[in-house]
Amino acid sequence: PMALPVAHEPMLLLAVTEFVANSAAFTYFTAGALHKNISSDMLPRRFPLQLRTKNMGLFSPQLQERYPDQPMELHLSARQQPLLSCHPDALHGALFSSAEAFVVLPNATRVPAFLLNIDANVTGKPTITGNRLGGTVSLKG
Q1: Is 3 inside a domain boundary?
Q2: Whole-prediction pTM
Q3: Which domain does 80 fall in, by range?
Q4: Which three-class secondary structure state does DSSP give residue 18?
Q5: DSSP category for residue 54
């Protein structure tokens, strides 16, 4: 239980519990909404890692040899429900995801290239400076 502050001036107070956040995460995961497909044309040209086989040659030389300079797609999805916990100084989250890469051939066929399972522990710390809301996010593992 948490005591709410007494308002002496008009203010907006927003409180979200772990139960609400984890219920939302469960609902989105169960509904299959935690999926995102990223194609090479969705990234800005200045983005440091373009989704093309020539850029992935560092990670997989055979990919560039077999499919020279072809566009790629990434299919990102959650393998398990994200878990969130609230602490007085930060929000902590455990993410369980996968990234599947495909080479897009000239006839629009997608050829599987590789699959990465990515698990991460993330901490976010909100900050309020004057009338600005900001924050930091750090990867813990």
Answers
A1: no
A2: 0.74
A3: 18-139
A4: helix
A5: H
